[in-house]
Write a structure and sequence with these properties.
Chain B: Its cofactor is pyridoxal 5'-phosphate. The complex is a heterodimer of chains A (about 100) and B (about 475). By secondary structure, chain A is mainly alpha-helical. Chain A has helices at about 1-5, 15-30, 35-50, 55-80, 90-95. The longest helix of chain A has 27 residues, at about 55-80. Helix content of chain B is about 40%, strand content about 15%. Classes of the chains: A mainly alpha (about 100), B alpha/beta (about 475).
Chain lengths: ~100, ~475
């Protein structure tokens, strides 16, 4: 049992923090206000939710899922910036 | 093009620099001819975007309205933005994997078919159905048409009656009207003032020759959630197929076709952060629901809906359904909190605000408010920096107040002043706060100008006034 569990190793703290940092950096690259805020918020909330995952297999699975989401976010940040409208959202421009 | 046109562009820009100050303070009508001449060489019509210096953006001038940026989007019931994860899933099928899923002879067809079947399974998983029971259509409107007209026409010899409600989506009501012209009978059940259908009235309305009961799951205008399990129970006991339009419900409330006793269900892609132009129809297999197809052709989708299945759109809908299944709890928690924030924010600053529809049995992302003593069109005109709607997009062309609000028994003047706020996955707290500020500001401004409000505040009962004829 123990050997089966140790075959899948949980990611280290540094790896997890590095992944979160990459996600937040990628979030900042989105030109669309709503998507940018969503990626940022969802990454933070997602990592916070999974903070207590002590089972190495579950932790590794969550890490892999987050990694694939990072790839999606990287690609989409490029696509969104290619087609960014010239005018930004009202929230980003001025206060009332 | 030629150098003369480029120099004309340069000369055209110069007066623009000089008259920028004038443009910023002039009325929209005066601004339109000035900027129209500047951009005449570009040949643009109504929409102009000047890239200005101050503010880091530009100004949008369209339909006589000038706004400094793209409005906050709070109209999620009309449509939702495509989730970037959905777009990521769809793009390969526009680029290299563009095959027709019905081509049997080559890789392009095989991979396209595999993608469509995978998407079908994702949609089925979200509603607790078998993939064989899910058929892709062009949208919930088409699915509603197939359900209502297709089912009744198939059973035209034995079943001649349909039961539906007065608050259904226009496509269901219009299909029923079509059936009436063909000789069927339709009962349009009234709803209670909170928007919920009366279960006893429903049971009483079902006759031996009733072929279909159609009640929508979540109303698009008022957000009320109908008691689907109870209705399903009644229909199962009476042996009548139960159809529900779940376009607004999919991915937002948990749906299980077995638990709800649903025989037919219409689903829409663009209400769950998927692409526009795709939807699905669920048809129960046990007991088998038979419909007459509305689209004739090559017999695709098991003969139910002919026509090439649009692979990228189907894949997008499948991805959207999968994401919705994962994110439903997280999204609903956030959206409920945002709705509370919006309602509290408005109610604490402005009085005489009425929520249309039941407050308990409602999907939190839909908030339909009526502001007394305020005219709806002028309120909307002043809220140009917030994209909201009054009534539903389908009925906004006519000047009639919304038939849904009329069915709830809302007074004409309150129905005209209703605003529907739609909150979604991508809505932020800052947007809600800004929407509250703008709405409160506009309502206060209009009420200040309103003589009716003055009279009401003085204690006069407006309904008792005898208006003099001129």
């Amino acid at each position: 049992m123990a050997s089966a569990a140790s075959a899948v190793s949980a990611p280290s703290r540094a790896e997890v923090l590095g992944l979160l940092r990459s996600l937040l950096r990628t979030a900042a690259k989105f030109s669309d206000y709503n998507v940018r805020e969503y990626v940022r918020r969802r990454s933070l909330d997602g990592f916070r939710e999974n903070k207590e995952l002590y089972d190495p297999a579950a932790a590794a699975a969550a890490f892999a899922a987050a990694k694939s989401q990072l790839e999606v976010a990287r690609r989409q940040a490029v696509v969104y910036s290619l087609y960014a409208p010239k005018v930004k959202s009202v929230l980003e421009i001025k206060s009332i | 093009m030629s150098t003369s046109s480029s120099s004309r562009v340069l000369l055209g820009r110069l007066p623009l620099l000089f008259c920028r100050r004038r443009l910023s303070t002039a009325a929209a009508a005066a601004a339109a001819p000035a900027s129209a001449s500047a951009s005449a060489s570009e040949g643009e019509g109504k929409k102009e975007e000047e890239v200005g210096g101050g503010g880091g953006g530009g100004v949008i001038s369209m339909k006589g309205v000038r706004i400094s940026g793209r409005p906050l989007y709070l109209d999620m019931q009309a449509t939702t933005p495509v989730d970037p994860r959905v777009l990521d899933a769809m793009l390969p099928f526009y680029l290299s994997r563009f095959g027709n899923p019905h081509s049997r002879t080559h890789l392009y067809g095989w991979e396209s078919d595999a993608a469509v079947e995978a998407a079908r399974a994702q949609v089925a998983a979200l509603i607790g159905a078998d993939p064989k029971e899910v058929f892709f259509t062009s949208g919930a409107t088409e699915s509603n048409n197939i359900s209502v007209k297709g089912l009744m026409r198939f059973h035209r010899d034995r079943k001649r009656h349909v039961v539906t409600t007065q608050t259904e989506h226009k496509c269901v009501l219009d299909s029923c009207r079509w059936l009436q012209q063909e000789g069927f009978e339709v009962t349009y059940l009234p709803v209670r003032p909170d928007g919920l259908v009366d279960l006893d009235a429903l049971a009483a309305a079902i006759r031996p020759d009733t072929g279909l009961v159609s009640v929508m799951a979540v109303n698009n205008e008022i957000g009320v959630v109908q008691p689907l399990e109870d209705i399903g129970c009644i229909c199962r006991d009476k042996g009548v197929p139960f159809h529900t339009d779940a376009a607004q419900a999919l991915g937002k409330i948990p749906i299980d076709v077995a638990r709800m006793g649903v025989a037919l269900m219409s689903l829409s892609g663009h209400k769950i952060y998927g692409p526009k132009g795709v939807g699905a129809l669920y048809l129960r297999r046990r007991p088998r629901v038979r419909v007459e197809p509305q689209m004739s052709g090559g017999g695709q989708e098991r003969g139910i809906r002919s026509g090439t299945v649009p692979t990228p759109l189907a894949v997008g809908m499948g991805a959207a359904c999968e994401i919705a299944a994962r994110e439903m709890d997280y999204d609903n928690r956030r959206i409920a909190a945002l709705q509370a924030r919006l309602l509290e924010g408005i109610r604490s600053r402005v009085d005489d605000v009425v929520v249309n529809g039941s407050v308990e049995h409602r999907y939190p992302g839909n908030l339909n408010l009526s502001f007394a003593y305020v005219e709806g069109e002028s309120l909307l005109m002043g809220l140009k920096e917030v994209a909201v709607s009054s009534g539903s997009a389908c009925t906004s062309a006519s000047l009639e107040p919304s038939y849904v609000l009329r069915a709830l028994g809302v007074d004409e003047d309150m129905a005209h002043t209703s605003i529907r706020f739609g909150i979604g996955r991508f809505t932020t707290e800052a947007e809600i706060d800004r929407a509250v500020e703008l709405t409160v500001q506009q309502v206060r401004k209009l009420r200040e100008m309103s003589p009716l409000y003055e009279m009401a505040k003085a204690g006069i009962d407006l309904k008792s006034i005898q208006w003099a004829q001129h």
